[in-house]
Amino acid sequence: MNPNPIHCAYLLFIIYNVAFIMQLITVPYFIKSMGISDIENGYVQTTFGAFRMLGAPLFGRIVQQFGIRFGLHLCYAATLISGVLLYLSYDITSLLFSRIPCICMHGQQAHQALISQLTNPGQERTNAFCRMGLALGLAFVLVPAISMVFVSVTLVSGPILLSSAIAAVPLLIFDFCIDPSAYESSNSSMSAEVVRPSTVSTITCVLSRPGVLNVIFKKITPFVPMILISSVLEVIRYALHRHEKYWPFQLHLIERFQSTQKIGQMIHLTSGSAFS
């Protein structure tokens, strides 16, 4: 009996996010353990964000040009390589170099494309995308729990190496558990259509279609209260400690409260439980 391809797609999404988030929340502790300054830490995080932003349209074009299979393999491989390079980093230059694979680490985008090809347009696809939010919340809960256990028996960089090993698992699941015919038929129908290049005019045309802006608004709105509260708390904390050295939230926990990696993971576990 062959496994349900949609269920496998959810499993791929969860495993990938576990690997990705594990790297994300371990980096500040790893950088502090190397003795890197907070300013240089900011350079690393800014580089990560810039590569992610620049890589999003590039990755979308790669998926459009070479197919979802190639895109997912590239995403998983980039996450694996990123973890290995990060683990081997020893100074600011090697840390910045380890962020280059992040250009192709767009799991949300890739798995949405996969699920859209495994489902029919309409209610089935809408329900499938809604369940992706639940899968992401589950990953947020799993990551701190796994990291706390792993940190207790390894060094601070242990979760980074573990994330690379976890990133290799979806490569096997995708190849052996999802029949290519389940999504290649959709690929062939897409390739038969005339694909218009992504330009400002085509993007404007898409945005002008009925309901598109409404969907974007509904997708963004739930995050506004969370970001607003976080921003207000940052402003208040800066006002209270404006005469002291100021750190972003995670570094603030480390510097002011001497937060260990385990305590940080417990905070993320609480946040992930609320998020899910």
UniProtKB/TrEMBL annotation:
Organism for this UniProt entry: Nippostrongylus brasiliensis (Rat hookworm)
Protein name as catalogued: MFS_1_like domain-containing protein
InterPro entries: MFS, MFS_trans_sf
GO cellular component, one term: nuclear envelope
One GO MF term attached to the UniProt entry: transmembrane transporter activity
Residue intervals passing through the bilayer: 12-31, 70-90, 133-154
Domain of life where this protein originates: Eukaryota
Pfam families in the record: MFS_1
